[in-house]
Amino acid sequence: MPGTRLLAFASLWFDEGTLTTVFEPLVADWQREWLDAKPSHRSLVSMRGLAAFLSTLVALSPRILLSPPPASLVIRVATRVGVLAFALTVPLIASFVYDLIHSWNGAQPLPLIALLNLLPGQIVLTLAPAMMPGVDVLRRHAPFSGHLARRATAQLALLGMLATLVGIGWGSPYANQQFRNRMASASSGRSVQLSRGIHELSLSEIWSSPKGVPRMMTNARRTQELNLRLSVVAAPILFVWVRWTMLSVVRRKWIAAIPVSLVAIVTAVAFFALMYPLNGGFGPWLPHLVMVLGGIATLRWTRSTQQPITG
Hints:
Layout: H1 4-11, H2 16-36, H3 42-66, H4 71-103, H5 119-130, H6 132-140, H7 147-188, H8 203-208, H9 219-247, H10 253-257, H11 260-275, H12 286-301
């Protein structure tokens, strides 16, 4: 019968009241009209019913995105995400800072304050894997399960994507340019304003390719940079989905027993190891494809459950 699977999908995201007052009557009318229609007209009825269902889903989707979870849960999720993001960022910066300090021979002392400009770019890269512990908090919070957990997880993924978009699109390029200018000024002993490279351009500037951008930015280089940045923007959704899938495996509970920090680190290393060696063209999307195919294969190979794993 048409609409049966769509109704099951809606039950994953909406409460019982919305299902019984909105979606179930809609699907019931759709199925009744489909049964009463002539066989030659049923395709048209199916298309009308699908359009009505999707429009209703879109109209009610703000309930999913705007309904806030409990404040205490938000604090727990933010704390777990922030701690792991910091723990992943420190090693990325430490080796670079160490080499810089020991090799510095500029006209002025090394401007340590300039090193803070390195943080935005590194935090952007670590944000996606750092969101995995947040998924654990939502899945393992017993009173907060079912469609509420899915809503909050979708919000987490969306917020992560938006934060990454702002960071890698505008924050990190600006911070990179400030770092370059301060280091060049300290090295030469006078104020220096370097011309921006492609990594110091905002996402909107690369997208629109305005006048004044570096001449070396050919169309191929521009496409490469866009793919690299947009693939990083999409990463939070992917990491959140992968962790949710891992916690949904019933017969492989040992997977859920692995410390989530270890899972996040291993996944991040594999993700970026696949991304950067193939950063030409659409190469940055390869890890996304591998992780999506792996997640789909896992879901098809094992049974999944809607209940959170608490063991």
